[in-house]
Write a structure and sequence with these properties.
Length: 161
């Protein structure tokens, strides 16, 4: 299955780094993966490739790309402390805007059939919820979601197709 590290244009003019994995079958629904605070680590790349093998077009992105300490912290010294520190510096509204751009990018790819989902791990789980409440995604999947309780007032807005 084809895969590549690339970027997607952000609404504010930046470049969102993302790992794209596409199905060998040629087309399918899209999935944006938002990782834990560690970043796009080996487990996230594995998830992307496994989903692509099942027929999905997958974009795994770094939600910390604007931070001074961006990127994958897997196996790095003080990774946990650094990851929690950068999580505290995140602007959620900006990340939701980035998510919208990533979803639009997937929908525009010829391999994507137009259906999109967000899969979030821990930190990313809140973005699966926000995608469902604010961005009209077809499905949202949150694994051991963190920071979601302040968002529950938006539960009535969840409308996955």
């Amino acid at each position: 299955m084809p895969s590549e590290y690339t970027t997607v244009s952000a609404a504010d003019g930046g470049a969102i780094p993302t790992y794209i994995s596409t199905p060998a079958s040629g087309s399918g629904p899209g999935v944006v993966i938002i990782p834990s605070i560690i970043g796009v680590a080996s487990d996230i790349v594995d998830w992307a490739d496994k989903l692509a093998a099942e027929g999905y077009v997958v974009s795994a992105t770094d939600p910390f790309w604007r931070d001074e300490d961006s990127g994958n912290l897997e196996g790095q010294e003080d990774a946990r402390d650094r990851a929690f520190a950068r999580m505290g510096r995140v602007d959620q509204a900006v990340n939701v805007s980035d998510l919208e751009m990533l979803l639009n990018d997937l929908k525009s790819r010829p391999q994507c059939n137009g259906k999109v989902a967000v899969m979030g791990f821990c930190f990313g789980g809140a973005y699966a919820f926000l995608g469902a409440a604010r961005l009209g995604i077809d499905a949202g999947i949150a694994f051991h979601s963190g920071k979601i309780s302040p968002l529950l007032a938006e539960a009535g807005d969840v409308n996955c197709r």
